[in-house]
Each structure stands twice: as C-alpha cells, then as structure tokens.
C-alpha cells in the first residue's frame, strides 16, 4: 500500500542525491497496477495472469497516459544525449535519438555514475521481471567494465586482480545458506581466474585449504550443476567447511585477501529456551546454522544462568530469527524480554600491579605483572602491547597474560558487560623458575585488569540509534516531543513529498515498542527507520540503575 512511483523517483533525488532517469512508467498503482510503459519503445507491456508473468505482450499506450509518457521520454532522451558530443549534436539537430542510441547513451551515463535508470514492477504480481533483467544487461557494467578489484597480498602489500580468466583465481564469499538437500551453500562472486569443481582453493582469513565439492548455478529456487565458473560469475559451492560471509577464496600459489565486509556489533539480546527436551538439540543446530548465515547475529551461553542468549541488530531482526527457527527447523522456543547490549569502558589511565602466588604441598604458582591501562578513542577496540624488556617475564607467558585480560574484559568491570576501547601495556613483572606457569600469569593478568579498571573511573556505554521519522506535518510536534521524552537528540528536520522528515539520535533502550507508539501518535500515518550509530556514555542515573539491576 502507498506505492507511488514518481514520489519514489523524487525521493531518490532528494534523499540519495542521485539523478534518477525513469525508463518505464507504471500503468496504474497498488491494486490497480496492470503493466508498464516502456519509454524507449513507447509501448505498453502487459504480463499474462495465467502463467504468472512468464509471457507478456506489447500494446499501444493507454490514451490517458500518452502526454505524460512523452514528457518523461523527452527527459530520458535528453539524459542519454548528454553521454557524448556525437549524441548531443544529433539530439540538438533532430530533438530525437534512435532506440539503440538511447540505450547506448543511458549505458554510458550509468557507467560514469551520472544517472540511475529507474524501472518499475511488482514481484508479488509477477510483473516487470523480464524488463529488469534486460535492464541489467543493457545498462549495468559487465565485469570487464568495472575497476580491477584490490586486495592485500601475502606479504602485506596492496595487490589487484584484473577481471580476466587468465589471472590467478580470486573470489569473495558473500552469502551462506543452509539447504535441506545439499547442506551448506556458499555463494561466491568470481573476480578473476577460473574455478573447476573438485579443485582446491585457499582461505587466507582462516589460513585453511578448502576443496570445492560441487558447483551450482542458482536459478531462483532451482539449481543446475556446472563444471566451472569464470570471471564475473556468481555461483554456489557445496562442501566448504570453514568459510563465512565476507571471506576470500583464492589460488593456492597466488594468495590475496579481498576487502572484507564490515558487520556491526549486535546491540540487543534475548534469552531463548526450548519448550521441550526434544527441541533442545534441534535448537542448538538451528542457531548455529542461522549464525553461520548471518554474521550480524550471535549466539552464546550465559555462564551464570546457563541460558542461551541470541543477539542481533534490533527487535525485528531477532523476531525473524525466532520465526525462522520455528518454520525451517521446527523448534518451539520461549523468548525472554529484549535486553540492550551495553558496554563498559574506562575514562582515565592507571597503573596496576598484580601478583598471583599460591604455595601448596608440591609445586606452587607464581605470576607477577605490572599493567598500564589506558582509555582509547571510541570505536578503537582493544589493544595489547608487550613492553617487557630484559626478560622480566619469559616470552612464553606473555600470551597467557593477554588471554587473562581478554577473558576479564568479557566479564566486565562493574555491570558485567564487555569492556571496549582500552589499551593495556604489560611493561614489567617477575617470574619464578619453578613455580611460574601459563595459568599463574593468566590469573595475574585477569586480576590485574579487574583491579586496575575498577580504579580507572569506569563508565557504562549504551548503543545509540540513528532514527529517521517521516510524518504528516500535523503530527510533527507530537513526534518530536515523543523523541525528546525518549532522551533523543534531534539532528535536523527536512521535508520531502511524503511529509516532514525528522532525523534524531536515540538510545536503543528507549526505542522498545516505538513502532506501536508511533502508530498511536500519528493514526498509523508515520513511518520510521532505525540503524545502529554508535556507543555513547550513559547518564549517571541510568548507569546506576542498570548496575544495581545486575
């Protein structure tokens, strides 16, 4: 409901700052959507209802649309003519171009990122699919028309691969899918070289060799087995064991790591419990497969309660996960209340000594460290620096100290939430020839971090979301007032054909149930989008309340 083609075209221009050029116009809208007008051929296209849009026929444009179609065709031809001087001269002389010249001009402009061709259709009604596929071929770049893909060579230098079958093989795994018949399918996009089924490739992220089982060409919900894939192809591999989304597969003798995808940290968690004993094992399998498919979704077991905790990007994200668990894996589960994924950090540097000494009947335990713990810029993460000189602590014990610190960071400082954005320098300590062990230094590191961080003015960080609300003007005051009550900070207000646009930054903790509240405020006429923006320090009163709950 609410579909409006020309409004969307305007939104592409105002919101995305692009130059949309419609090459089709819809005939009717919403329930009355019947077909499209092809502005290049100036013909109406109608799809058959009987074979679910597999066939279509060309007819004359409805009389009522001829004038508006001519107006938009003129704009399209003008955009195509701007592609080069030859087309522009012809257009200025004749005010018209041939159909092939229009396609040539639109393609050139699209490849130069000057325009965005806009088509329309309805997947639900099976209308417009063939035209979109033709548009992909006619307007979008082939693999040889895009810049060479860049990556990092094995020696750390920047490398690149030409889009050629003669280059060494390189591909990116961009999607993992679980199939009930063949198991895990890894979708890859080949950037260079040729890959044949049965051959071996290398995963530089995991430093593991993988053998390709079968290669499948996917056609919507059907598939066809193929022997090889070449540059520019997209295919699914069967039999890969250690590949996750965003990882590179490359030639064993010519290693390159392509740019990885960045996945945001989960910001919301819920506890899930299987309803029956039979669901327990099935739930573990289902969640591990879903986590493999979706890197922004995480699963872990709470050590204190023994509960299974699932974490994702929002309420809807986790609702979909639980729904898929039931539909695809037959797992019935009870779901707890959503919990915000808070983080902890520190605000001042400290130095901390930590000794772990245990003397028992036999061999004792001895670990002694000096740690410098410092805050880092937001988003920097954790950094461990080994500044030991003169062998004060033997090299083999250093990783144990780091491991102890990392484990303690996971358990938090005051509220039990993971610690982020800290730098820890191990700069001194001592050891015992007989009693020192990895375990002793791990415990010394863990206890030292906990003691030092507690004195380093710890603070609680909460996830803040970027929220955009589009509302009719008469509800603007109510919407802004409601966002302010939710501790939101209004960043700006704008206007577009759909209404007033409010941009705000709001703590996630205040956004639970917002969809329902917004519907009530605006009689269902406002919409909103929300995405994770950053972590910010929570106000003292909020932080204290959260810590006291733990």
Describe the structure in your own words.
The chain has 550 residues and is α+β, with helices and mostly antiparallel strands. The mean pLDDT is 91. The strands form nine sheets. The chain has a six-stranded antiparallel beta sheet with strand order 15-14-17-10-9-18. Strands 20, 21, 22, 23 and 24 form a five-stranded antiparallel beta sheet that branches. Strand 12 and strand 13 form a beta hairpin. The protein contains twelve helices and 33 strands. The two termini are 45 Å apart. The protein is globular and about 100 Å long. It folds into five domains: 135 residues, Rossmann fold; 98 residues, Translation factors (Elongation Factor Tu (Ef-tu), domain 3, Beta Barrel); 72 residues, Elongation Factor G (Translational Gtpase), domain 3 (Alpha-Beta Plaits), CATH 3.30.70.870; 113 residues, Ribosomal Protein S5, domain 2 (2-Layer Sandwich), CATH 3.30.230; 89 residues, Alpha-Beta Plaits, CATH 3.30.70.240.
